[in-house]
Amino acid sequence: MVEFLHNNLAYLINGISVGGQYALIAIGYTMVYGILRLINFAHGDVFMIAGLMVVYMSTVLPMWLTIVLTLIMTAVLGFFIERIAYRPLRSAPRMSVMISAIGVSYLLQNCALYFTGGLAQSFPSISFLTKPVNIWGTSVIMAKVITPFLTLILIFLLLFLIKKTKIGMAMRAVSKDFETSQLMGIRINLVISVTFIIGCLLAAIGSILYFTCYPSVQPTSGGMPGLKAFVAAVFGGIGSIPGAVIGAFIIGICENIIKGGASIFGIQTNGWTTFSDAFSFALLIVILMIKPTGLFGEKSTDKV
Amino acid sequence: METLNNKKRNPNTIPAIICLAAVVVLLLLLDNVLPANEFTLMLIPVLKKSAIYALLCVSMNLLNGFTGLFSLGQAGFMLIGAYTYAIISIPDADRDTVYMYSEGSDVTFSIPEMLGNVIGKNAGNFFGAIICIILAGLVAAIFAALIGIPVLRLKSDYLAIATLGFAEIIRAVCQWDKLERITSGSFQLRKYVDFGDMKLQLGGMTIKFSSLFPYLIAGLSILFIVALINSTYGRAFKAIRDDEVAAEAMGINLFKHKMLSFVVSSFFVGVGGALLAMYQTTIQASPFKSAMTYEILLIVVIGGIGSISGSCIGAFLFTACNEWWLRFLDSGSINLFGNKMSVPFFRDGFRKVIFSVIIMVVVLFFSKGIMGDKEISFAGMGAKLKALSGKSKKDKKVKEEA
Amino acid sequence: MKKVLAIVMAMAMIFGLAACGSAEAGKDGDTVYVGIYEPQTGDNGAGGKQEILGIQYANSICPTVELGGKTYKVELVIADNESSNDKAVSAATKLISAGCSIALGSYGSGVSMAAADTFEEAGVPAMGISCTNALVTADNDIYFRICFIDPDQGTIDANLINSMGIKNVYVLSMLGEDYGSGLASYFQKEAERLGMTVTADSFPEGNSDFTSYLTNAKNAGAEAIFAPCSTGYAQQIIAQSAAMDFIVPLVAGDTWDSGVISDACAATGKDVQVYCSTFYAEGKDVEFEKALKDWINGDQDNLKNNAGSDELSAVTLLGYDAYMVAIEALKAADSADPKAVKEALPGVNYTGITGEIKFKEGGDADRHDAFIKTYSSETQTLVYYDLFSF
């Protein structure tokens, strides 16, 4: 058993770190969904834009300033996306808002394509994060080691914010009942803006960690992590923050196990890896069959 | 365009038939008589593709707009349709080159060729293609039925993500190298019967109807969907969309109707996929990503959720803008009245930026889409034309806003 | 507000149509059009742009052609196929409708194959520049190409690894891509013939996380990795294998001959070993290279399209040769009519920068050598070449 773990530690470490990165993105999906009942398709692209910001700013600014500015600017980007693309449609049918999200996603991707000229940009190395570390015979970079811890710290901070502060209370109220909380005098637009800002801030942190591990940013780089994070959010029960985090870790680890399947279990066939993406979806569908609202999702009751 | 006759109200029938005939004549002229210049050459593929997209959008509209089932599995069903069509219509002689990497195929029949041996090559291609298209739709429908049993119990967004997931799984299965001898794995399927094979030999003259063919199939399919929507089933669908609980209380079998809508929609998405395979002349699984589904969804919303004619107009505008009208933005310069001018921001990729800005503008400011949930009717159009006679007539959008 | 917007959009659309229409009006009797069917966006955008650079440079050197005693201006028409098969038909049609006598491209074999039928129906000849998949020229008489093909390339790469004394190799290609999967399959065949142990995996499109694949390679005891894929994925593979301290020879096909790769090697700060088979060895014609580099450095856009450096990729030089072959074909046909050009093309024999170009039966180039480019990054990325003949 110990031997087995030792041999396959690389897959596990990688799975946990990817899971942490997915978790940071998934929170953005799940919080927005909890409050607006909106699948924010643009979230994965915000994640990609944050990566590009680092690439471009680091050429002229020192790294610490780049990171700080990236976090701020991504949050601002999130605020403006909500303000411009979603707020005007607040009373429109849900489908329209979702289309608006797809539209924003197109726009961000195409702008990135235009400015990068479609070339993959190599992500600058942040010396602290790219330092090699040796864990029990497996060489990994620092970013992979600190990702899960950083993720957990951020989640606890976030949960504290939601459970103990006034704005957090307002967020919970809005996600329970949009209209009633408005009647109670909660400034709903403020709450929504804060939600977007928090979501984007976490996505920016996830982005820096992710692209440090996988240092190439393309306009489509946000697509797959975004989709996986979204799957993770649904998996955990969309709207639930602990659910999203647990879902993200499960998806991240399973994905790496399936990629290394043949090697881990000593199966002598090729072609397992074909299904590394498909497997995440299959897992999701199985979970939804057993529990239609995800692992921690609240059962919604239809009002007649 | 074929939707012009989709409402069979009396005042519309005659103009609709006239329009339909005009479309048929125009498409035949385009293929056979009109000179091949810059305009007609580009028009033909855009018209073909927009017919296909119109069918795909109407099928999606049936599910999302009329039944209220939010499914994002379209790309997967298109892929099934396209692959089924291609696999069973590759001629024997070409199979060895197509399946070069797997050293042969396990499918050893070609329906158009088998028919062609009996009734002649051209007729064989035509009827064979139709049979293959129907089979493509059927296979997609069978998969839909299988997927539907577990998935249709899910509510709104959960259904969306589950169907999206299925589409991704289907794509991976099609690319799996263990199925190489059927799907050709990572490699393209080619050489099957496509639109270019649609022709008629009359004496010494060859009449091509490669542009008419997609309109024929898409038109008949859309007519069928419209008939379904206007039937009692269609009313049940709308009842489910408006209020599931109330619909159930009125005795509508929720699961049965949802399943019917899902299967019928997937059948026609499969047909659309087969047509797309014919249009592209080669088919490969990799472009059938969720982005393709989003594209169809965008058209549905731009056209108007719940409007069949909106979907058709949207399909044409979307395809034309994306693949034709805006291409000059990429070129770095424009020709105005014979003078070549270079424009600072114009370079590759600019087209897509402008295109997405247009989409955002439409979504934000015309959130009901071009048609809302209305349909084009000739009686209504006449009245509007009268009302607008004082104003500018050159733009369709202005008309619809008014 | 809404009405204003609607009107603005309508005007924009009419303007667009006018621009399309007047492009036609701008056409006059003394211009010949050469089409460029290349990806400028998508997975292969980077490579497509480098190929276009070569064509554009050639056009700047040789902007006219004499046909029937009259001098014609040669104008390039670019259509972006977005590296995607579903845009192939309309991109190819764009070139046909612009009246091109011949189309050049595309980088990426899949899109080239997807456009073959469209070109064939219109009777416009197409000349592949670096699309190496065997099927591009198979079964059609419209597609030609000036580069070597994958059965040869796969053999060379396998023999290269064999010559290092390596007996266990890991093959990683992108799922659903003609070029990579095809090359991998030829490589595997030859490697197995040479008695190597081959473990093959494929990664899904859009994948960034290669750590698990590299761990698979490590666990399989691989001493070398063969990874035919586009440069975006190559960057990831190089960086991640260095990060996990798994440094074995990385071998790939012609796509890896790019400034992007030398930057990626340099960025690792480790002594990575990267090899790729390619069409041209830098230093073969120093004068020409210098002129080309000056041209690239002289324009900010060109520099950007070459990934920000003036390191030459073989595809750029092949692009140059392709344009020159096209001009030769036009001259031989003595007409701008695509059908005449098509008839004349097989007879063209041109000695270009990348070597002698003539066509075999079926449209493939009659080529017998390839270069192995080696990136070595101990201090800075050094590049050197070996010649392989077949």
Provide an overview of this structure.
The complex is a heterotrimer of chains A (304), B (402) and C (390). Chain A has one domain (2-290): ABC transporter involved in vitamin B12 uptake, BtuC (Orthogonal Bundle), CATH 1.10.3470. Helices cover 71% and strands 4% of the residues of chain A. Chain A has 14 helices and four strands. Chain A has helices at residues 2-7, 9-36, 43-57, 63-86, 94-116, 127-130, 142-164, 166-176, 178-183, 188-213, 223-235, 241-259, 261-264, 276-290; strands at 121-122, 132-135, 138-141, 216-217. Chain A has a two-stranded antiparallel sheet with strand order 1-4. Chain A starts with a helix and ends in a 14-residue tail after the last helix. With 402 residues, chain B is mainly alpha-helical. Chain B has 17 helices and six strands. Chain B has helices at 10-32, 38-66, 74-89, 92-98, 111-119, 121-151, 156-174, 180-183, 212-229, 232-242, 244-249, 254-280, 290-303, 308-325, 350-365, 378-388, 396-401, and strands at residues 189-190, 199-202, 205-208, 282-283, 333-336, 339-342. In chain B, strands 1-4 form a two-stranded antiparallel sheet. A two-stranded antiparallel sheet of chain B has the order 2-3. In chain B, strand 5 (333-336) and strand 6 form a beta hairpin. In chain B, helix 2 runs parallel beside helix 9. The radius of gyration of chain B is 22 Å and the shape is globular. The two termini of chain B are 22 Å apart. The relative contact order of chain B is 0.16. Chain C folds into two domains: 30-148 and 299-359, Rossmann fold (3-Layer(aba) Sandwich); 150-278 and 370-389, 3-Layer(aba) Sandwich (Rossmann fold), CATH 3.40.50. In chain C, 44% of the residues lie in helices and 22% in strands. Chain C has 13 helices and 15 strands. In chain C, the strands form three sheets. In chain C, strands 8-7-9-10-11-14-15 form a seven-stranded mixed beta sheet. Chain C has a six-stranded mixed beta sheet with strand order 2-3-1-4-5-6. A two-stranded antiparallel ribbon of chain C has the order 12-13. Chain C is globular and about 65 Å long. Mean pLDDT of chain C is 85; it is low at 21-26. Chains B and C meet through helix 2, helix 12, strand 4, helix 14 and strand 5 of B and helix 1, strand 3, helix 3, helix 4 and helix 6 of C.
